[in-house]
């Protein structure tokens, strides 16, 4: 087991333009736009492609090649989605993407990573039959036990180059969660588009929850 303070955190430099706001809050971003911040966890078994997807989405590092290098604890990247449609409004979104190691050695670190989470991307490799089963346990720990709703989750079935196989069928725990096939070599544009749509869905949920809380206070 590894102590929580041993989590490895690698951050990108924050954009110089403007302060960030807490998830669910909004601030002026010019020309009627809004600014948001969101924390998304990327969770899955070892060797499923979490870091490759994280690097691609954030443009923070190498995508493909170089052999397998397991994540130690947790790796954090920060990037911006400049023009995202959220509830029919254009928003600038600051994304914290937490690439969580699937190695059980770091399980003691997981609770620290879950604090303030707004959404979870579950990843598995269909070329390894046991990974879908492992995802059940991870769903229980990162979503069910944390009160994370289905609308705050998505599953990326990540196809690595040259790997065949459909993998085991996901359990009923994922029946209401979108399942998206990701193939960076063949259609990287749709992967980014699907992720952006997921972020917009998460922000819509966060906004709705915040509005309900405000209304309950006023009643």
TrEMBL record:
Pfam families given in the database record: Roc
Assigned keywords, A-Z: GTP-binding, Nucleotide-binding
SUPFAM superfamilies named among the record's database cross-references: P-loop containing nucleoside triphosphate hydrolases (SSF52540)
The keyword Nucleotide-binding appears for this protein: yes
Single GO MF annotation: GTP binding
UniProt keyword annotation of Nucleotide-binding present: yes
Database matches in PANTHER family: DRAB5-RELATED
Protein name per Swiss-Prot or TrEMBL: Intraflagellar transport protein 22
Gene (name only): ift22
